[in-house]
Fold:
Amino acid sequence: MKRVFIILLILFLSSRPIFAKSPFDQLENSNPLYPPIKVSAVTNKSSVFPGEEFKFHLSIIVKTGWHIYSLSPLAGNEFLATQIFIDENVFRAKGVWKEPKPVLIQDGAVGRIVNGHKGNVEFSRTFLVPPKVEVDKYSIHGKLIFRACDNKICTLPQELPFQTGILVTNH
Structure:
């Protein structure tokens, strides 16, 4: 009897998957707890001189079938706006965040037409290196605050951190 139990236990355990699922597998069920986007940050230059400008790019990949809202929503949809925050650092921001032209999306989850983005999206902003900044490697940290929808359900507001680095040099 003991052998039969052990054999049945081995058969049961061996029939179960032994590899962990990807966290994105859970998105197939439109689970609003898992953000359907990936974020990466990069600068257009790996090193800069004091007094020079550089562009900071925030690249976002939105899962197929989902969308995020624009930085500049339509009137009445301000609460849906995507926001980008950079932690305080030595660099000075110039101008406002730039985004690709948003598309009008009939959003079934919120029941209205919205400005949004699908697929690959890149936001950018120009920064100035102060003339008297010390030569060193600097980190740029921040967070993206967004809601994503798939026309059936929207995530709760999500906050995703990002970071990149840039070298300030004098030669």
